[in-house]
Amino acid sequence: MASDDGTGEFVRDPLGVAERITADGSSPWPVEAGRYRLVGARACPWANRVIITRRLLGLEDVISLGIAGPLHDERSWRFHLDPGDVDPVLGIEYLRAAYEKAIPGYDEGVTVPAMVEVSSGKVVTNDYAALERDLATQWRALHRDGAPDLWPDPDAIERIGEGIFHDVNNGVYKCGFASSQAAYERAYWALWARLDELSEHLATRRYLVGDTITQADIRLWVTLVRFDAAYHGHFKCNRQKLTELPVLWAYARDLFGTPGFGDTIDIDQIKQHYYGVHTSINPTGVVPLGPDTADWLVPHGREELGGRPFGDGTPPGPPPAGERVPAIG
């Protein structure tokens, strides 16, 4: 997942299969209903971004979803929540098998999300940023009726998303996996400077870009929803808890209650993954019991800022029966 650049700073490894699935013929992989299976994990924020995008756009019947469990070893993410520890569609126990079918002798990182071609069992791409962008744009012909436009202003979304990626999404990992005090402190101060900036930005507007939910909100939210359960303590991002940040806490609760967001989250799996897998940080493997998740249901009051969550579209319907997560509270 990462390397050390010699200064003790966490450096995220490059993606191993950075392909694209397109409708315009610009890649070898065409948009096609039923051809691909999205493999994610409830624990992983990068996978969560694509899972939310798929939900909001109503692509559940177009792209099937496989869920790797929260625990894995050096061999890769594992389907230990499925009967017989095997993905029922791909027929594999470890996701690494799909990477090795795509690239024999594959020795890069095995990450989620990964889009897998069902017929061949090969990973097509693990480029999460391209996946969420292409689901919103290249797959448009297969969106549900009433699907929102998640990319109404690409330049603004990418501009604000760049800072969110470096200082928040990846920033919490830079804090947690820093191997020197100096590297940790650089990441810590960058994280909190960015969160303070985002808090100020959101104090007078409901969403990050325009008056509707966009991909920028999805990017920020997946880190916020994991903050108190994992990043505050486990990754030492402990200036304050999310619950102590009035604007960001209300913003996060607003999105949590929005169809397509909170219904993709399993807090227990999040904690099991971070505290159970990162043995260099938590060698005992003890998983904390808190925090109290009922607080996510407290009214947020953000409606007063206006905004139209889905723009001219509509909310997605309930998740498919096989994709439902435990209720909060």
From TrEMBL:
GO terms for molecular function: glutathione transferase activity; oxidoreductase activity. InterPro entries: Glutathione-S-Trfase_C_sf, Glutathione_S-Trfase, GST_Omega-like_C, GST_Omega/GSH, Thioredoxin-like_sf. The keyword DNA damage does not apply. The active site is at residues 44, 173. Residues 300-329 are annotated as: Disordered. It holds the Pfam family GST_C_2. The keyword Cell wall biogenesis/degradation does not apply. The record marks 231, 274 as: Lowers pKa of active site Cys. Keywords: Oxidoreductase. Its EC number is 1.8.-.-. Glutathione binds at residue 77. Gene3D superfamilies: 1.20.1050.10, Glutaredoxin (3.40.30.10). It comes from the Bacteria. One of its GO terms (cellular component) is cytoplasm. This is Glutathionyl-hydroquinone reductase YqjG. It comes from Pseudonocardia autotrophica (Amycolata autotrophica). The lineage of its organism: Bacteria, Bacillati, Actinomycetota, Actinomycetes, Pseudonocardiales. The gene is yqjG.
